[in-house]
UniProtKB/TrEMBL annotation:
This is Noncanonical pyrimidine nucleotidase, YjjG family. It comes from Flavivirga eckloniae. InterPro entries: HAD-like_sf, HAD-SF_hydro_IA, HAD-SF_hydro_IA_YjjG/PynA, HAD_2, HAD_sf, PGP-like_dom2, Pyrimidine_5'-ntase_YjjG. It holds the Pfam family HAD_2. SUPFAM superfamilies: HAD-like. Coiled coil: none annotated. One of its GO terms (molecular function) is 5'-nucleotidase activity.
Length: 229
């Protein structure tokens, strides 16, 4: 069933349009080789991925700072695989990762198709918790920046999703209202509950088939947005 009265569509970026896991794995493979870090990449990523999610949750909840996230996730991952590494090397890898991550730009299936489809009838926007210096590069280098009228990130607002302030800032920037807007994202806590709490319509991009409230609209492929918009 189509959602009526929508003029503005807001997307999360990482894990929703931009395939973070695939691009991150490629970036790590490159920087570990560049820095002569001889570890099994699959073993490293097996530990790093959940550690990274844990640190992002702490960052989203304002319990750690940006630098704590960037250093801690790498330090903990190397500790988990039993690889001794100097603090200075971790800091260099942290910088290298931020530099190289936007060089890889795999998008989720049907990203261009659904953006072309929506662009004809809606104003499109981004709301992201990602770092400002990286997110704009991702949008530009993956050739999707031209679709979006506004881009709101947590660093420019000073709070992170699900804080209502970031959604209200994005709506103001878009010159829209919550009643006219829909949020599409992969994080049930940050994107879906955050947007729902200020009165926005929501569509959960749920590639892992999570069990959630039956009242939430769900898709597992972006092209399925045609059912709702």
């Amino acid at each position: 069933m189509k959602i009526e009265g929508i003029t503005d569509v807001f997307f999360d970026l990482d894990h929703t349009l931009w395939d973070f896991d695939k691009n991150s794995a490629l970036a790590f493979d490159r920087i570990l080789k560049l820095n002569n870090i001889n570890v099994d990449i699959d073993d490293f990523l097996h530990h790093y991925v959940p550690i990274n999610l844990k640190y992002w949750k702490l960052y989203r909840e304002e319990k750690i700072e940006k630098n704590d996230l960037r250093y801690g996730r790498l330090n903990d991952a190397f500790m988990a695989i039993g690889y001794e590494i100097e603090e200075a090397i971790i800091n260099k890898l942290s910088d290298d990762y931020i530099d190289h991550l936007p060089m890889f730009n795999y998008l989720f299936e049907n990203t261009f198709e659904i953006l072309d489809y929506l662009n004809d009838n809606y104003s499109l926007h981004i709301i992201t918790n990602g770092f400002d210096e990286v997110q704009h590069k991702k949008l530009t280098k993956s050739n999707i920046s031209g679709y979006f009228k506004t881009v709101t990130n947590s660093e420019m607002v000073g709070v992170k999703k699900p804080n209502p302030k970031i959604f209200k800032h994005a709506l103001q920037l878009a010159e829209s209202t919550s009643e006219q807007s829909v949020m599409i994202g992969d994080s049930y806590e940050a994107d879906i509950l955050g947007a729902k709490n200020i009165g926005m319509e929501v569509v959960f991009f749920d590639v892992h088939n999570t069990t959630i409230d039956d009242g939430i609209k769900k898709i597992n492929n972006l092209i399925q947005l045609k059912k709702y918009l």
